[in-house]
Structure formats: C-alpha cells, structure tokens
Amino acid sequence: MTIPLSELAAPAEMTVGRYVLHRQIARGGMATIHIARLMGDEGFSRIVAAKRLLPEFAEDAEFVAMFLDEARIASKVHHRNVVPVLDVVTTDDEVMLVQEYVHGAPLHYLLNKARHASLRVPISIAVSIASHVLAGLHAAHELVDELGVPLEVVHRDVSPQNVMISTDGTARLLDFGIAKATMAAHVTREGTYKGKLAYSAPEQLHGRATRQSDLYSLAVLLWELLVGHRMHGAQSEAQLVATIMNGALPTITETLGAEHEWDAIDDSEWSQLGAIDRVVRKGLAVDVNDRWKTALEMEAALVAIVQPASPTMVAAWLRSVGHEHLEKLEKVIAMEETSWRRNQPVLLPTRRVNAETRRANAAEISQLGSLPQRSSLLHRGPHVVIALLAMLVGGLVIGVIGMLRSSSDPTPTARASNAQVEVAEPIELDEPAPALASAPTPAPAARVTVPPIAEPASEPEV
User: Fold this and answer.
1) What is the CA angle 282-195-65, rounded to 5?
2) Short-list 298, 4, 252, 2, CA closest to 120
3) Cα(294)–Cα(324) distance, rounded to whole angstroms?
4) Cα gap 451→427, rounded to integer Å
5) 97 versus 435: which is more confidently predicted?
6) Which residue has the higher pLDDT, 201 or 368?
7) Residues with a known catalytic role
8) Which of the four pLDDT bands, split at 50, 70 and 90, describes residue 195?
9) Structural domains in the chain, sorted by start
10) Radius of gyration for the chain, computed over Cα atoms and rounded to the nearest angstrom
C-alpha cells in the first residue's frame, strides 16, 4: 500500500550495488519502494525505483523465488503500458528489484480522493485508463521467449493498487509479483489461491487462473472507475466468495440508476454507460468461455463505444485530483536531489583533458624533423632498439678484424669480376717545393707511398 508522504522519514542514504537508496515512498505486504539513484561513470546518474524485499521474507526461499520471478517476467514485457524491471540486486541480506521510476500516482489513491470529493471520473478518462491497462495485459498474455515459445503469463493481481497514472497521461500496469508463467521458478501449488479476493475471478479462487481471469479483474476495476466506489461493500470473506462464485454482481446501470433519475447523469452519458455495462458484464461472466477471449478484443469493444480521452486530458485529470500527492512527491525528489548534489565531489573532465593533451603533443612533434622517426623507433618497442645496437656492434667488430688482417698482409690481392688484377709498384712522390723565404723553413716531409689504383686486365681479343 502507499504511505502518505508526510509520514515518511528521511533515513540515511545507503548503497546497494551500484544504487544509492533514498527515501521510502511506499510499502506493501512483501516489499518497500524507495526512490533510488543509479550511479554510472563520469558522474552519470538516473532516478529509478527500488523495490526491496522485506527482511522477514528475504530469508524465505519461496518469497525470494516469487520476487525474482517478477523480475524475469516483467523484464521481458516491452510495452509502454507496463512498468519494466531494469535490474536485480542480491546481497547477503538484500534482494532488490530496480524498476523504471514512474512520476505519477497510483490509481487507488486517485479513486479515494475522487470519492471523498464526490467527484465522478469522466467516462472518457475511465475508458482511456481501462484501454491502457488492457493493452499492457495483452502484451503480457502474448509474451513468448527467445525461441518463440508462448510463456502463458497471467498477472493474477490486476487492481487499482497495481496501476500507475503517470504525469504524461499514461496508465501503466506494474507488480508481476504473483504472476504465473511457464518460465517461473516458483510454482503455485494446484488449488492455491493468489490475488486480491475482491478482484478475483471464480476459477482463480480455485487456483486455476487464466488470461480470462485478468479480464475479469479489469472488468471489476472499470466498474469501480465508472461507479465511483468499491464493487463489494462490507461483506465477510465467506459472503464475498459466495457472491463471486454465484455471479450475483451489481450492474453499472442498476447502481447509478438513482443518479440518472436525479439528472446527475444526462441521457448521452447514460447511453454510453449502458453500452459499457454490457462490455463489463461479459467480462464478469462466471463461465470463462462466456468472457472476452483476449484483452485486445475487450479493448476494441470499449473504444468502439467511447473515444478514450487523450493523454493530455488524462494528465490534466491526474493533476486536478492528485495534486497534493504530486506536490509532496516532487518536493521529496527535490530534497533528495539537493542533498545528493551537495555531497558529490567535483569531477574533472579527465578524458577530455587527456585528448587535448595528446593533440597538442602531436602538433609539437609534427614540427620537428627527425623526432618523428626517432619516436617511431621507440614506439616500436625495446626489441627494435636492441637489434639496431647489436648490428652496430657487429659492424664495428667486423671492421676491426678487417683492419688487423690488412695490416698483417702488405700485398693484398684484389679481385674484380672474378679476374686477376696485377698490383703496380708504389710510386714515390717528389719532395715538396721549398716554402717562401719569409716563412720559417718547415721540417722535410716524410715520404708517402700510395699504392696506385689497379686497372682491370684487358680481355683477350677473339
């Protein structure tokens, strides 16, 4: 159930996985709902809703299995009228589902506010909400796995508590906590009842829920939207079960007949209500075979009678009826946002600085002549440098050996083109001419013997 926001304390923030949990905004029989924040890299964050399993159930294997089944099923339903599950976090003492945060109000809160203010929900608004929920149900009912095998999902808990009206004018179905599917790890024993009694179909009370059971629940929800109060009044549980099993349910026109006589409902609206009443009665049939076959079929019958209100009109109705809830919720979010920003360190754009630095270094390197070649060699790694050094040392060693050999052999033999070449006698150079008289007489120059360049022997003529 939803907790009045004024009663919610502001607990200290706690971190579970990569999520920071803020204030609790709702509490149900199995779990609490928190405003939370997904933390990413480079200061990225996103507001989400965290559904935490209560501690007394976190150690119960059956409840944990049900909780995780909700994540598996809801995460596979991709539809604008279904609130998706984004992530699952499990620790030693925590089991948490992360859902998309929907800014709005639960339908049961809005119905209570309207009833206390003696306000009737406009017919077009009621039809719009019902058609949205039916569209979401149809997406869940038709769900298949990755191999195309039908999963046969049944929600089993369609009620005003599990419908959110968002500020964009969309009704969204949530809480697949007790849903039935072939992929579910938790299996409900045959004959075990799951759901809210006042919205349950006869076969569901026997533990044999089908997709038509969800349509029965939606018919009760639509009845309450149009009439303005709960279908079942003050009854004991046994009386309520007998009423459901017998199908002795009041109709819309029977319940609102007095208001029509008082002219509180005009003839045009009364005609619309009569047509919708027939759709609702078919949805409330005791025999499953007498109900609508699919949610899509029931939705088509409704919109053929009354044009649904636009999202803008639904959003305006939400603001008019649930403005107190929205204002308090927005205040809570603003407080949490302010606190979070105040406590966050300033993050420097490190990646941008590194990129700019690399570009600047590249520009400086391009202006140097030999530096790019040298840097490219270094960039290739130490193995290339070591190989070059080894080549240089090897060249020096070979040169030294060659010099030693040449000094020990004064008459080397030169070969060119595989022919012998005769070595000419050394030529003695004359002494240099005497220097000018004004200059001091230098010491006599030493004789230098230079071997002449050998010419190749001429080839014999043929």
Assistant:
1) 135
2) 252
3) 37
4) 7
5) 97
6) 201
7) 157
8) low
9) 5-341 (1.10.510.10)
10) 45
